[in-house]
Amino acid sequence: MMIIMEKQAIKRKTAGRKEITHERIVEVAARAIRRSGYAGTGVADIMKEAGLTHGGFYAHFKSREALLAEAADRAGAEAVALSARIAAAVPPEQALPSIVRAYLSKEHFDAIETGCPISALGSEMPRQAPEVRRAATRHIKEMIDVVARQLPDWGQPGAHEQALMTIATMVGTMLLARAVDDPKLSEGFIKAALEKLAPADT
Description:
Blueprint: H1 2-36, H2 43-49, H3 64-88, H4 92-103, H5 106-110, H6 117-121, H7 130-148, H8 157-179, H9 183-197
Helix pairs in contact: 1-3, 3-4, 3-7, 7-8, 8-9
């Protein structure tokens, strides 16, 4: 009886360690894809950054695409959760402007590896595996819903359309602002979007 219990305890402990290791790999990969892009993110580099050997990769993932899908899922979930927390921390009428200002902030602009994965990776998405695109699409829909819920006519078709436009503007603005090598143009994109989506008097 004691031997069986000890074996079960060892098995549970091993499973726990494996789960923790798996989470560490996904966390590192979620940062890496935003920092270096999907094409620039290699399994060996991720495992090294996670403090693990390359050989251990297949104990956790069946393929590189499976890891990228989990990383995209993690990055997208983090972005949605952050926007929801920002909305919950202010009065309802300030929720949407607060989300927009946080998204279009200098802090987000500079924090590409921990920020929104869509503005960091959007141009690469059409060339990714179906499971990677599926994960990204799910979180884009969630983000649209977070924005729509902050609108006075939430639940009406107009709110959904407004949320689509808002998300498209936020993501497109950040993508373009990061893409150009002209700081004034970059600032111009962000300033124009802020004036449209979250004017100073809101």
